[in-house]
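Good morning N.,

You mentioned wanting to compare the apo and holo forms, so I went ahead and generated the holo version with FE2/S2 (inorganic) cluster. This is what I fed in:
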Amino acid sequence: MIQEQAAPTASGQEPPADHVRALLDELKVSPEANLIGVLQDVQEHFGYLPAGALQEISRRTKIPLSRIYGVVSFYTQFYTEPRGRHTIRCCRGTACHVRGGKKVIDTVRNALSIEDGETTEDMIFSFETVACLGACALSPVVVVDGMYYGKATAKRIEEVLDQIVVAESTEEETN
Ligand code: FES
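and this is what came out, ligand included:
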């Protein structure tokens, strides 16, 4: 059982190889391993799928690296770049769009100064838009760290972002 999540590393910095090996030892990654499950566990640990980890998984499972990358790119749940500690997902679907979703998306984009698919430099936020979050009756919808905000307004989402920033700075002060 993996206890801790490693802090996301800055872009371009891979976790040490011995750290990757220790994790894969713990997960008992072998040719019999369930690839999706292994990828999920590794991502849960590092916050993303480091290239070195994918190479080591390929070596241990004997699955060609190109096939592993094929699986990773097929599933939107997997990331090959370090992620922010908080994920903001805005719906860009039609139902949300006609009820003001674009304004909410623009608000998030401006507040964080990043574009769809990017992560803030301080590694606090990742932002992405989604074709439909499956809750059209609540449109416009934003999901923050897995929590759904229905009938979202720009003001409400700004408040949520502010709360996260305050919580992050408080945590930093106490560490
Ligand atoms: S269109 Fe936004 S939740 Fe479906």
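The pocket of FE2/S2 (inorganic) cluster is lined by residues 91, 93-96, 132-136, 139, 141 (CB under 6 Å).

Happy to go through it together on a call whenever suits you.

Best,
F.
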